[in-house]
Write a structure and sequence with these properties.
The protein is mainly alpha-helical. Helix content is about 80%, strand content about 0%. The chain starts with a helix and ends in a 5-residue tail after the last helix.
């Protein structure tokens, strides 16, 4: 999902109003809530896709805030993510070939 200019302005306003420490704490809290939902699903076999989706959306928003707060460049972030996906691809190919991952 790409955020609109208006949405980015709201995220920027939250940072300027609430401060960096507050926004980082909120990001940590939201990621912990997503972790909790994923653990419920993994350990209890719970059908909680709605909860996972809700928490994932929260994390998505706070990650956009973090990216904007620290001035992280979209192109640089995309390149790093692409590199990580390529490394995953290589590990999967190694595993398929019978090698250790």
């Amino acid at each position: 999902m790409k955020f609109t200019n208006e949405q980015i302005a709201i995220l920027d306003r939250a940072y300027k109003t609430l401060g960096r420490d507050s926004q980082v704490a909120i990001a940590i809290e939201e990621m912990a809530e997503l972790t909790k939902e994923l653990c419920k699903n993994l350990t209890r076999g719970r059908d909680n896709v709605a909860g996972i989706t809700e928490e994932l959306a929260d994390v998505y928003v706070v990650l956009a805030q973090i990216k904007n707060m620290y001035g992280i460049d979209d192109a640089k972030l995309d390149q790093i993510a692409a590199d990580k996906i390529e490394r995953l691809h290589q590990r999967l190919d190694q595993r398929a070939a019978g090698g250790a991952v």
